[in-house]
């Protein structure tokens, strides 16, 4: 049976993420051990909180290099929420911070993307929209346009149009998911998005 | 566009869900985990688990139940009741809570909200406030509505949001348990003052009460209720269909 490694770099609450993989019958390990990560079939980069702190922790633990190696190896890798934002080149959250650079683009405040007056953070269930100019990505094979997923975020991916595989409408189109080859990023929380979310994780596990 | 949320609230005591009229005369309803599963399958957008246990063993039982619920349902879980320190946040977040609501704890300790927001992020910190209109002024009540703190409610809410609360649950003690509808005037005041999600609580008795809520106060993000869901008086699927038919954007 295939194994998923969730990268443990001391950031965030991964209890629900672990449970959701178990629910779909997927063996999962929370680990910061480079050998265990290298031996896994798929890799998940989780994260909540502030970009700068998380990026620092990833570097301090040396796990940034491990993630980059795994991405280069062609293994399916997904960043979730802040984990997705860490895949970008840079973030403008409280100053400018360097990300992993796996997805070209910049993480910018939602307020720079959406009209004034809307509540920030975006908290709640919003619908997925797929770009018309490209085929639906396989990670969404079990979901359809208009299905709702759960968002909690104040920043979002920008200047990444080439790699966007889903957006959500919050006053403007906001990046909901990106993919570049084997590297995926989900802004929303699949582990908190009911059956739809589990189906997205299921599709990831089949890659 | 983001959808309006429907949130059942489960008051948990000694491992069971309870709900009394005006919080007095508690009546056992069901198993928290079974009910959570039922609501999640039935279209609830989020669940609130409210710990109304006083004893240490009750608290342990509560976190066990929370852990089981979080490994059974995959929608956001907010936990409240007995949260007075950052350590209390840690305790429930570890068991699968996504958000933590503070009420009396924030009144007793003004540093609790900023401290928790710094540690866990504002999105995780929910202010829950029990409000009653006393001699023409909205006041904050504490201890489950038994004591009038004398604090003016609207400025209290504003202060807490500035201090880092990322969401506000407004529970009107004047409409709670009465089942004649939400406290529209109070909610209109609150949404005009803060720009974070506001959750209406207290007074829902029928589907029409939710339709009125979202139509009269379009800035409201969510409606919370307990007994009408627990006793099957309102089915969440039916409620959401009716809301959609009335032009309210919901997740079906």
Any descriptors?
heterodimer; A: 207 residues; alpha/beta; Rossmann fold; 7-stranded mixed sheet; 4-stranded mixed sheet; 13 strands; 25% helix; globular; B: 252 residues; TIM Barrel; 8-stranded parallel beta barrel; 10 helices; 12 strands
Please give a structural write-up.
The complex is a heterodimer of chains A (207) and B (252). Chain A has 207 residues and is an alpha/beta fold. Chain A has one domain: Class I glutamine amidotransferase (GATase) domain (Rossmann fold). Chain A has six helices and 13 strands. Chain A has helices at 15-23, 34-39, 51-60, 63-72, 82-85, 194-205; strands at residues 3-7, 27-31, 42-45, 77-80, 88-91, 97-98, 103-109, 122-127, 148-153, 155-158, 164-169, 173-180, 183-186. The mean pLDDT of chain A is 95. Chain B starts with a strand and ends in a 7-residue tail after the last helix. In chain B, strand 7 and strand 8 form a beta hairpin. Chain B is α/β, with parallel strands linked by helices and 252 residues long. Chain B has one domain (5-245): Alpha-Beta Barrel (TIM Barrel), CATH 3.20.20.70. Residues 20-26 of chain B have low confidence and may be disordered. In chain B, 53% of the residues are buried. Chain B has an eight-stranded parallel β-barrel with strand order 1-4-5-6-7-10-11-12, surrounded by seven helices. In chain B, helix 1 (32-41) runs parallel beside helix 2 (56-70). Classes of the chains: A alpha/beta (207), B alpha/beta (252). The interface between A and B is medium-sized, with 34 and 28 residues.
């Amino acid at each position: 049976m295939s194994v998923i490694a969730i990268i443990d770099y001391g950031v965030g609450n991964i209890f629900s993420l672990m449970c959701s993989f178990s629910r779909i019958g997927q063996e999962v390990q929370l680990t910061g051990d480079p050998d265990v990560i290298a031996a896994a079939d798929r890799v998940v980069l989780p994260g909540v909180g502030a970009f700068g702190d998380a990026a620092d922790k990833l570097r301090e633990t040396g796990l940034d290099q491990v993630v980059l190696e795994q991405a280069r190896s062609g293994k399916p890798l997904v960043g979730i929420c802040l984990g997705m934002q860490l895949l970008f080149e840079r973030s403008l959250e409280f100053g400018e911070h360097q990300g992993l650079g796996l997805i070209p683009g910049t993480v910018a405040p939602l307020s720079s993307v959406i009209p004034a007056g809307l509540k920030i953070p975006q908290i709640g269930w919003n619908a997925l929209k797929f770009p018309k100019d490209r085929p639906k990505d396989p990670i969404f094979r079990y979901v359809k346009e208009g299905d709702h997923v759960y968002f909690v975020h104040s920043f979002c991916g920008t200047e990444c149009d080439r790699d966007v595989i889903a957006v959500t409408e919050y006053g403007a189109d906001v990046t909901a998911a990106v993919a570049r080859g084997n590297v995926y990023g989900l802004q929303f929380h699949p582990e908190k998005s009911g059956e739809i979310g589990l189906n997205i994780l299921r599709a990831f596990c089949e890659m | 566009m983001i959808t309006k949320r429907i949130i059942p609230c489960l008051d948990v005591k000694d491992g069971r869900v309870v709900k009394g009229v005006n919080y007095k005369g508690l009546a056992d309803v069901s198993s928290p985990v079974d009910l959570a599963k039922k609501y999640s399958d039935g279209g609830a957008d989020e669940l609130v688990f409210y710990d109304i246990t006083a004893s240490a063993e009750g608290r342990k039982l509560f976190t066990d139940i929370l852990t089981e619920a979080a490994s059974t349902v995959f929608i956001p879980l907010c936990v409240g009741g007995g949260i007075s320190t950052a350590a209390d946040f840690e305790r429930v977040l570890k068991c699968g809570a996504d958000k933590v609501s503070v009420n009396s704890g924030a009144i007793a300790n003004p540093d609790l909200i900023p401290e928790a927001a710094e540690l866990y992020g504002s999105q995780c910190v929910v202010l829950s406030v029990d409000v009653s209109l006393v001699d023409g002024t909205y006041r904050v009540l504490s201890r489950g509505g038994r004591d009038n703190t004398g604090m003016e409610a609207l400025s209290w809410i504003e202060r807490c949001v500035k201090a880092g609360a990322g969401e506000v649950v407004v529970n009107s003690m004047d409409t709670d348990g009465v089942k004649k509808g939400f406290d529209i005037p109070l909610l209109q005041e609150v949404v005009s003052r803060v720009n974070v999600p506001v959750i209406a609580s207290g007074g829902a008795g029928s589907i029409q009460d939710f339709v009125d809520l979202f139509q009269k106060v379009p800035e409201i993000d969510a409606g919370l209720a307990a007994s009408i869901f627990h006793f099957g008086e309102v089915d969440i699927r039916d409620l959401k269909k009716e809301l959609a038919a009335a032009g309210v954007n919901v997740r079906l």
